[in-house]
From TrEMBL:
Protein family according to the UniProt entry: Belongs to the thioester dehydratase family. FabZ subfamily. Belongs to the LpxC family.
A GO term for molecular function: metal ion binding
Cofactors required: Zn(2+)
Pfam hit, one: LpxC
InterPro entries xref list: FabA_FabZ, FabZ, HotDog_dom_sf, Ribosomal_Su5_D2-typ_SF, UDP-acyl_GlcNac_deAcase, UDP-acyl_GlcNac_deAcase_C, UDP-acyl_N-AcGlcN_deAcase_N
Gene3D superfamilies reported for this sequence: Hotdog Thioesterase, lpxc deacetylase, domain 1, lpxc deacetylase, domain 2
Species the sequence originates in: Adhaeribacter swui
Binding site for Zn(2+): 79, 261, 265
Name assigned to this protein: Multifunctional fusion protein
PANTHER family: UDP-3-O-ACYL-N-ACETYLGLUCOSAMINE DEACETYLASE 1, MITOCHONDRIAL-RELATED
Amino acid sequence: MNDKQHTIKSPVTVSGIGLHTGVMANMTFLPAPVNHGYKFQRVDLPGQPIVAADVDNVVDLSRGTTIEQNGARVNTVEHTLAAVVGLQIDNVLIQLDGPEPPIMDGSSIEFIHALEAAGLEEQNALRNYFEIPQGIHYKDSEREVELAALPLNDYRVTVMVDYNSPVLGSQHASITDIEQFRDQIASSRTFCFLHELEALYKQNLIKGGDLANAIVVVDRVVTEEELSNLATLLNKPKVAVKKEGILNNVELRYKNEPARHKLLDLIGDLALVGRPLKGQILAARPGHAANVAFAKKIKKQMQEAAIQNVPTYDPTKEPVMDINKISQTLPHRYPFLLIDKIIYLDENTVIGVKNITLNEPFFQGHFPGNPVLPGVIQIEAMAQTGGILVLSTVPDPENYWTYFMGVDKCRFRRKVIPGDTIIFKCWLLAPIKRGIAKMEGKAFVNGKVVMEAEMSASIVRKEGV
């Protein structure tokens, strides 16, 4: 698995009809900066609103995963997201001039080919993996659905499906390395059963469905009259059934293609947690509703871990931002640039490092002979760490100022002295609104809290920029 974040080198476009909406659309993948993540943009709507690929934005699960934000909706995102996860792409903006990504051949392989043609580019930031800390489980007893995530220093996925069908039977599919996705999973196509077709049409779904982009499994005896009606429904001159029960002589790419496609869907849906995962994922009879419910449990665990866990600092690992990168983001300079490294950064959390030495200028006057780091310096260093988080939400942080607005519930637990290394951890208490950020922060030395506070700040664009 990659250590560094990746984007694509150049824009690339694919075009086609949407599976459920039946609307033609052009979808363009564009390079995106570090920590951007996956975002869709509806360029056909006023203001070209952006929809983040986030499990909290899921609004519909009717035979696919639909997300909505800022008044814009994007249908059936799972095949697209599976492709970027499968290629270990971290940051990409996906522009759409319609409501739904093209279904292409019903799999992810054509997206894979397009992204590979654009080329992948390594970025100067570490991937923000979420390592499953303990077993996370989801179960729907009524549907006999069960999913689990177990600790593992890798990303492995195993899926079992059983449709009580003589045609499909019980099937398994798995990958033991995400790099296997491209060749073993990406070309597996979406499918449905014959008895579901009319119901899906009545639900105003699969308007773009075609025997060229979906497998139809025939799980019962079909009369010639029914085949004739199906031909009319699918706008085909004629349809037929193969011996093994696949409509219109479609050849399966794998004997267990349905199970492989369910694995593809699962990887795409789990992308909505917002970070690459490390863990063993086991799924029995998964579907979009279960996948999304499971993703929400993982994200909740992720958020709790970010708040509760004491951050660890390994000085041998390359930081997300070194002092030069920090200087390009923050306007502070000596002797008031107080952060040495940023070792973690995502949309909600930042972790910074400050090394304390006797050479700090304030030690000349602050308790000479008994050097103790001033509390106001600790607060300012924490605020600068939080400032990195706030500025990471805009594409051009060099054009913004961040201003301290308030400090609340500040407590100093232990003294900090030269030789200590402080780890500052700040996280947003609520989404940034109207340029106002509210966050909580804690400072750690040797795994113990030395200071904590709640802070608020405003982000303001520089005049004339």
